[in-house]
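G., before I forget:
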Amino acid sequence: MASTIVTFELGGREVEVMVKPMTTLQSVLRNQLGFTATKEGCRQGGCGSCTVLVNGEPMMSCLLPVEDVAGQRVTTLESITPAEGLHPLQRAFLDANAFQCGYCTPGMVMISKALLDHDPAPSDDDIRQALTGNICRCTGYRPIVRAVQAAAEAMSDDAGEQAR
Amino acid sequence: MTVKSYFLPRSLPEALRLLQLHGPELLVMAGGTVAMPLINEGISLPEAVMGLRLAGLDRLDRTDGTLRIGATATLTQMLDQDAVPMLREAARNTASWSIRNMGTVGGNLFTPPPGGDVAVALLALDASVTLAGARGERVLPLGDFFTGFMTNELAADELLVEIQVPIRSEPTAYMKFGRKHANTPAVVTVAVRIEWHEDRVADARIALGAVGPYPIRARQAERLLVGTGLDADAIAAAAVAATQGCEPFTDGIATDWYRRKMVSLFVGRALEQLAPGAGAEGR
């Protein structure tokens, strides 16, 4: 089978790529579209550095043939970064020193984004449960859990402001 | 990457046609959480792959006291259902959120040990599986499905399409013991279901994972429990007997010696959860 054309939604824009059979979404994002926030880690689904959202749900883009997401909505760290400034999660990760080398951070932020979309006020235990598939070898996780907690608070304050 | 053809059938008939056409050389993949790592590493070098994600086999139906689980229903879908609490517990203890969003219940039956923890629960629940082929469908008890390490009853022209689980109110216990609290391969997985008649055990299921080539039942231990009141002596005897028939293996997680020890310990603990006066809930 020759290459095929796959179309999907990436950060609100329709993108079209020509791919060899079973090219992973991760490879397409990084190598064809230049969306390099999504990292290549273990390529085994074991580290979480490639986490993206598909229709709002976290998935490992290293295990996902891009053909499987044809017509679907893909969200990466680039998609949630505002044109100016930072997403509250990015801000909170920065403020809490929730990264050192930063390699796991895009995946951490995306899984945390999915968590806060599902549950705007998660407990520490909820956060730890959500992050079990995302490995960080630098921080010891505590600053990351703190950052997610802080982002949840900041976002609920923002929502409160807007409601008023 | 050697894959020359990747097929994404949109229906079961289309999937079966592709299987007929390409034969056993066609690698069948559902969630990709087992096949993709092997392909990414170059350990598996298939030329043709069929992905089932879009084949419409992911439905959950509750009919006649049975939960019918489409083979490509995800582990996240197991977390979201409340008909069979043990399956929720099994899914909760399997992998991580992103992997549960991808990995499927059907795929779990093809996952080599120490993976395949949901299958252990299904075995204790007396699940059966529907295999569909060009000549029609057949239904097998899950216990008859496995034949060896990564081998099973599935014929080359068949697909596993559905898993049926009887919905019962009996108390169950599910324990997965690993080296971490979550997202970890099992040292041993234990799934227990007890059928009571008044204050005596009428029937018992003890299913074990990660201590054999596929999920197995501790039949000797099950037999020892029948007729007892699940008292401390009965539990102790069953815990010892549970190691009979096990074939624990050594891997990066645990030695065979340790796994055998843990079979007794965790079968005992699981039974204690279900013993009278243990405050066991019908979960």
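Residues 129 and 185 of chain B are 25 Å apart (CA to CA). The radius of gyration of chain B is 19 Å.

More on Monday.
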